[in-house]
Amino acid sequence: MPFKLLAQLAWRNLGRHRRRNGMLLAAIAVAVAGVVLLNTMLRGMEGEVREVVLDNLTGHVKVLRSGYLADPGIRHGFELPADWQAGLDAEALRGWAARLRVPTVVMSERETRGAQLVGVDPAREGISFIGRASVVGEPLAGAQDRRLLMGRALAEQLRTAVGRRVVLVTQAADGRAREVGYRVAGVYESDFAGLEKVFVFTGAAALQETLGTTFVTEVSVRLSDAADERQQGALADTLGAAFAGLDVLGWQQLEPQAAVIVEMADFGVFIYFAVVMGALVFGLVNAMATAVMERVREMGMLRALGMRPAAVVAQVMVECSLVMALGVALGLGLALAVFAPFADGIDLGAFDLDKSLAQMGMRANFVPLMTAADVVLVAVLSVALGAVASLYPAVRAVRVPPLAALTGGRFGAAGQRRKAARTDDAAANSAVDD
Amino acid sequence: MSAAAASLAAPPLATGERGAAGGASALPLLTRVAWRNLGRRRLRTCMSVAGIGFAILLVSTFTALQTGVYGAWIDTATGILTGHAQVQHPDYQDDPRMANVVEDAAALAERVAELPDVVGATPRAEAFALVSAGERSFGALVLGVDAAREAEMFALPTQAAAGEYLPNPDSAYVGETLAANLGVAVGDGVLVLGSAAEGGLAALALNVDGIFATGQADLDRSLLQVPLAALQSAFGLEDAAHRVVVNTTSGERAPSVAAAIAPTLPAGARLLDWRTLMPEIEQGIRFDRVTADMIYWLLMLLVAMSVVNAFMMTVFERTPEFGMLLAVGMRPNAIVGLLLMEGLQVWALGAICGLALCVVVVVPLQIVGFALPDNEAMRAMNEQMMMPERLHPELGGKALLQAPLVMLVGTLFAALIPALRVRRMRPVEALRAEE
Prior knowledge:
By secondary structure, chain A is an alpha+beta fold. Chain A is 53% helix and 17% strand.
């Protein structure tokens, strides 16, 4: 039987029970929209966590001297080789930055706090949050700048402000603690109070001079946003060759918690699908089984006229897939309609959720993310599920012998027995069109 | 006409003149007939029951899981250091200055510890200071504690990776990372330098007698505990402290206990419970609840839609039968009642199956608990989120009742919508509907 005819038959059959199929379509649409929207939240969370980690002075790949993570300090720094960038693929790169990051104690006239002093070249920090942070006062002018850029939360704790002086105690390259006075050039704001408390910035070259060193403690390299894991691996290999003897670590190793959240997102997409579609499948089988049962006579006739059992099964499956495909289309439309107003983000801070999000490494403005791959996945899985769910009713339909079907029996021998026992049931069992 | 329908149409139910008494005596009959009707379309009944059971199983199981996890999460997170509630100077939470103290803290702690539902209370003083060993210096939070009480109330004193917890008046209990950064081991000396309460330099020479490892990066890197008296005298605090940390009988009950003891506190002190002290936990629970609720409602809505569809089909198929019943004098409302009874029975079967499976899944887990996947990344995340290592779901009233009750309302509503069509049926047309 040609597919075109099957599809035509299936389409007409759908029109026979508008109300029932309408309800079924609505259920499929709600389920599909639900799964797609849950996925956008999951993907949004994944993207957010990854973005925040990459932004947080980590980058995709970082070069460190082994021992630095356990004991951060200038003695675990290294000399930047002159030609280290030679092998890098400039196309795939968003940028890189070499920094000195050392623990420090910041003292204002009134308070004392621990922090990390980071020597940066401001021109290179487009790859991290500090390059884009809004600053009250002035940002750092260059790698030679001897002034300090401090987070707002730390400035509040220290009760200091732009233009005031603070004293930083840091261990210099010779192992001695060095007290240096700094003027606060600017106070930056970040999405996380945690970052504002931890990082104070100054010019990298100026800090090298202060600490009496030519070392840096890290090189952070960020790939372009479209980069995948393969490119990250290639980058790590290139850097491994350029910085022999040093550790080359991906962000997944540096921030394992974030990596767990990102990994779980891929898995969660399937869990959501299984749970939501699981709830749908009972209704789907129910509707298809009824559609088949009430057409037993008609199918008996078709079979008596020579339609093969496989074609009967195919017809039911095509019908169910068609309903599913329609439902998926409706559901995607519904999902888009709900998603559109939130595409720019939802301010969860307004619901007092900012601190818990911060603990998970997310900003308060939550941006859901709809990816084509997830939408296609949900659509394909749904239609496949529709075909599988219709298999059982379809096979039942085929099991009825044509003659029994024509004479009004329901399900072959079993149906006949039941019919014999309760002949008066037959009237109620036959189809009623709405 | 089916046997079931015939018996239903027979007096007393069929004769509309019978009053309330007739209706009441008909209930067992209604129940029996509804039950037989469910058997007429076994596959359909099974699918509806399975759908309802599936929703109840998932929602109840996950609610039990959430209930168990939240309590343990609160207790684990507050049990490290923060406690269930704290008495502080009214400004200290927002402006943690040295001078914002609670006076006569040890006596206050003793008094609070005697109050009902309070398990323990201990004073703490704290100062940010420069901690030095030899040439190395790091900034750290120095906590002055009452060692004996602290050990009774919190986990940190038991998390010693080396040495012991504050055995002497000049002992220091140092975080693992801080000790490594300072290059000190048990037995080495450290010097604490900070600003005293009245200005001027505060200095404290200590002996590292213990090193702790909590897995919480912040604590291990920047925390140092010392005896309260040593910190008070070095920083000129006299008998004052910054916090009186209070533990109650359970973290979940702490806010109500805290509210009860707040009025008994002296002026110049206020009580904050863990929801204010650790907003990330409270928000985390809320966030988890909101996202889970969205999925629960979606699930239950989908199942209810399936049930609506199932009853719609039932009503269509049985239109001639209903026409016959109407023709012989059965009231439309009785037919609606019959369909609702069928809905009720479908729900009951679904609820029994769903809850039975839920109990089978949850009870063993509740007894032995279960651990999350044991890999390094997962452990790091758990420690950072301050989650307990083993989770025990808790099958309480909420888990057992909420989903079944919501599904009950959903199922009855789903049965009612198509059933109301019966009231618009005209017996003659309905009888001919099969033609």
